[in-house]
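In the previous chapter we treated chains in isolation. Here, by contrast, the input contains two separate entities that must be folded as one system, with a combined length of 559 residues.
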Amino acid sequence: MNEFDQMYREVILDHYRNPRGHGAMDDPDAEAEGMNPLCGDEVTIFVSLAEDGETIDDVKFSGRGCAISQAATSMLTEMVKGRSAIDVATLPKEELLEEIGIPLTPIRLKCALLGLGVLKVALHRAKGTPLPEEWAGLDDEFQVR
Amino acid sequence: MAVHAQPKLDARKLRGDFPILEQQIHGKPLAYLDSAVSAQKPRQVLDALRDFYETSYGNVHRGVYTLSERATEGYEGARQKIATFVNAPSPREIVFTRNATESINLVAYAWGLPTLGAGDLVVVTELEHHSNFVPWQYIAKRTGAGFRTIRLTDAGELDLDCLEEIATEGQVKVVAANYVSNALGTVNPVERLSAWAHEQGAIMVVDAAQAAPHRRVDVQALGCDFLAFSAHKMCGPTSVGALWGRHELLAKMEPFNLGGHMIRSVGLEDTTWGDVPAKFEAGTQPIAEAVGFGAAVDYLEEVGLEAIEQHEHELVAYALERMAEVPGITQYGPLPENRAGIVSFNLDGVHPHDVSQILDYEGVAIRAGHHCCQPLMKRLGVAATNRASFYLYTIPEEIDRLVDGLHKARKVFG
C-alpha cells in the first residue's frame, strides 16, 4: 500500500463521512471545546458518566475540520465508551494512534490528537485533577474552553 | 530608466537555474506552487553566497584590513542594488532588516510609539497579513490611538468608499496597506492610498513583500513614505529584508535596536546615534545574506520584472479558468486583471489540509491555512483556504497537475 492509500484508507474516510457519536448532549457530566489554531479544526466533546460516576456511559462530539481530526475523534468515541473516566484521562496517546493506524507527519499528529486532548481536559476538569505531565499546556495549545 | 519591450520569459529555461526543482516528491516531479510564502533560490544566488564566504567574508565597517573592506564593499554594494531596484532616491534610505515583518515593526515602534496618541487614527486594511496588522493594532493600543480597517468588497478589493467616513473619526496619522495581498493576490491602489494619507497629514506604509518579487516597485511613483520587503520571497536568502524610508523621516526617528555600530559616541551618561541607515543597523548584520539579496535583485533584473509580472498574469488567468472546471470549487479574490500570481480556493467537503495532503502525494506543494490573515478569513467566513502561488519558474503543466490533484481529492472524498 502506498503512503496515500495508507493515510486516506477506507476506515478513516468512513469515520469522516459517517462520524460515530456525532452530536450534542444536554446536561453532560464533562464538556470541553478546543481548536487547532493551525488549521482551524474545532472539536467540542460531551461526556456522560454512569451512575457509579466513574464509567463513561456515552461520548458525543461536534466540530469541523480535516478528515484526520474528525475521523480520529469519531474513533475515539468508540474506543472510550464503557471505560473508566480515570483510565481515559490517563490514556496514552499511542493507544489512539495505533487505532488510527496511519503514518502521521508532526503537523498532522496535532490534528489526530485534538479530540483526545479535548476529552482529557474535559475529564480532568470534571474530576478537578491536573492534566498529566505529558499533556500539560494542552489546554492552552488547543485553546480549550 | 529606459522603457523597452521585454521579451517573454522562458520559465522552462529558468527552471534550470533552480537545483531544488530537479527532485521528485513521492515519486512525482516537484511542482512548487507555494512561492508566495517563500521563493526557491537560483544557482546564481547560492553561488554568490558561497563565493562571498569563500573569498570576501569578514565583518563590515571599521575593519582596517582587506577582507573587511571587501565585505563592506559587498554589503554596501547590495544596498545600492536594492536602492536602485525600488528607485529609492538614495541608498542611505535603505535599512537592512531581518525581513518585511521587522521592517514594519521598526516603523511601528520607532516612528509610531513616540508619535501617536489619543485622538489619532491608525488605518490598516482587512486584507493585511498579520505582519502589517498586529504591530499597528498593538502600537495603537499602547499609545491610545484609534485603530480602523479599510473594509473589503465581496470581490476581495479594498472598498475605498469608507475612507471618507474614517477621516471623520479622528486625525489619521498612519495608513498601512499591502501592495499585493498574500492571501488573495489583490493588487491594491497604493498610489491612491498614499495620496489620501497625505491629504490627511498621515504617512503611508507599504508592505511590498508580495509585490517586490513579482512586479516593478517604484517608491517615488507610489508616493509612499515607507516600504517593506523580504529577500526570501525574491529568490534571495532568508533572514534579510529591507525597509525603504524617506530620509527626512528616518533622520528624525528614534533608533529601534540599540548596541554596536548604531552609535556616534558613547559616554558613561549619554549616547548619540549614528547617521541613517547605521542608526537602525545595530549589531552584526546578515552580511552574506545581504550580498545574496543583491545577487537575487540582479537575477530578477536580468529576467525582467515586467516579464515576470506578465508571465504570472498569464498563469493566474489560466489557473482561474482551469480550476473553475473542478466541481465544488469556490475561488476567492478579484479578476485576473487586478491580481498577482496567487489563487485562493476551497473545495466543497474537503478540508484544506486534506487537499494539500493529497496534492503532496502528487508532488504538488500548495499552502493550506489562514495565511496569517485571520481578519480576512473571518470576512470570507472560512477557517482556512487553499492557496497556490506562482513565480517565474512556474509552468502551465504544474497548474494542470494541480487541477488533476483537485479532481483526485474530490474522488477520494466524494
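The two ends of chain A are 40 Å apart (CA to CA). Chain A touches chain B at residues 2-4, 7-8, 13, 16-17, 38-42, 64-68, 108, 111 (CB under 8 Å). Compare these points with the single-chain example from earlier in the chapter.
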